[in-house]
Design a protein that fits this description.
The protein is α/β, with parallel strands linked by helices. It has helices spanning about 1-15, 30-40, 55-75, 75-80, 100-125, 130-140, 155-160, 185-190, 215-225, 250-265, 315-325, and strands at about 25-30, 85-95, 165-180, 195, 230-235, 275, 300, 310, 380. The protein starts with a helix and ends in an 8-residue tail after the last strand.
């Protein structure tokens, strides 16, 4: 059975698509699989846990990723000349009080528990130290004989370490983090952190998604600062609404600001970002939210069985951005909320400050002044062609 699974899940797709696909992603958002499926139970298989099943799930996913990478490395890489990576979702975590060392430590823990949980093993072979220390301590306090966080064997660490050629990063929003002394046995409790949103941050059609453009730049800098230089692809980034408006100025504003901050991370901070993918090409079924939250550049009429698509204003903007391979000098983008109209543009200015992987609540929204240049970055949108 083990061989059948390996052949079916890895070998067959590679043989079929090897002529057109050179970049492979083993897992998309393993955090969501583990947290939503084995801790809070809102996605398949719908199991609720207490800081136990979630870690077992993540442990197995990491080993499965490493297995897939090693199979490709052994059987296909020399002939296919492709690359294998993993896509992780993450939020930027902002200390609620930037002058409080405890809040700063809590924000760092939060990043490691969400992002480092999967990134640290594929780069260094094991879980982040802060994650191991937290879960070990909490487990002892709760009278467990062993940590609720499983351990990798020495051979597993060697096998997992270095199992990536690039990192895919899904990014949407940020959180405010406050240090607390949590007592409940849970994944959240293990972090000793409380998560909130700043009420001043622009909203969207999703309660969890607040518009924080600088967050993506700071997250990219955190990766470089913590792990060094390697290729990064933004595999998801976008914003939702609930009214399905074709004149989606809020989405244009979102993409303009986030892409501009990705570009700043590249040009000013030296982060090795190789590509960007918008989420999403068209409205789709958004998990537990169904069709009520729309992320698409194209409107989909879900009441019509043929599902006709209509380009939104954001699709035209994004098309021009790709065609021109750069921003048009039209003045600074103006914030808007879903369904509102953007004011007339004014004269642009340029901000060229270098970013550091730290932030405060007051600065997370970031400058609204674009760094205009003739080149942005190579943007990918539903392409099956190879790229470099």
């Amino acid at each position: 059975m083990k061989r059948v699974i390996e052949d079916y899940l890895l070998g067959i797709p590679i043989h079929i698509f090897s002529s057109t696909v050179k970049y492979w992603i083993t897992l998309n958002e393993p955090f969501v699989v583990s947290n939503h499926g084995y801790e809070i139970g809102v996605m398949a298989p719908g199991l609720k846990g207490k800081g136990d099943r979630i870690y077992a799930s993540g442990h197995n996913l990491i080993k499965a990723h490493a297995k897939a990478y090693r199979i490709y490395e052994k059987d296909f890489k020399s002939t296919q000349k492709g690359m294998v990576g993993i896509t992780l979702n993450t939020d930027w975590q902002v200390p609620k009080n930037p002058n409080d060392s405890k809040d700063k430590a809590a924000s760092d823990r939060a990043i490691n528990f969400m992002f480092g949980w999967f990134l640290n093993p594929v780069i260094r072979g094991d879980y982040p130290d802060v994650m191991k220390e937290q879960v070990d301590r909490k487990s002892k306090e709760q009278r467990f004989t062993t940590s609720r966080l499983p351990s990798f064997t020495p051979n597993e660490k060697l096998n997992i370490k270095g199992t990536f050629d690039f990192l895919g990063m899904n990014f949407y929003t940020s959180n405010l983090v406050r240090s607390i002394n949590a007592t409940e046995q849970s994944y959240i409790g293990d972090q000793d952190a409380e998560f909130t949103k700043d009420p001043s941050w622009l909203g969207s059609g999703s309660d969890w998604l607040k518009v924080t453009p600088v967050g993506i730049r700071r997250m990219l800098n955190w990766v470089k600062f913590t792990y060094g230089d390697f290729p990064i692809y933004i595999t998801e980034n976008g914003v939702s609404d609930r009214n399905g408006s074709l004149q989606d100025n809020h989405r244009i504003f979102y993409y303009k600001q986030y892409i501009n901050n990705v570009f700043k991370a590249m040009q000013l901070d030296g982060v090795n970002v190789k590509g960007y993918t918008a989420w999403s090409l068209m409205d789709n079924f958004e998990w537990a939210r169904g069709y009520s939250e729309r992320f698409g550049l194209h409107y989909v009429n879900f009441s019509d069985p043929s599902r006709p698509r209509t380009p939104k204003a954001s699709a035209r903007y994004f098309t021009k951005l790709i065609t021109d391979n750069g921003f048009v000098k039209e003045g600074p983008a103006v914030p808007s909320t879903p369904g509102t109209s953007a004011p007339n543009p004014t004269t642009p200015a340029v901000q060229v400050n270098v970013c550091k992987p730290t932030s405060s609540a007051s600065s997370i929204v970031g400058s609204l002044l674009p760094l205009y240049t003739s080149v942005v970055l190579f943007i990918l949108l539903g392409s099956t062609e190879t790229f470099s």
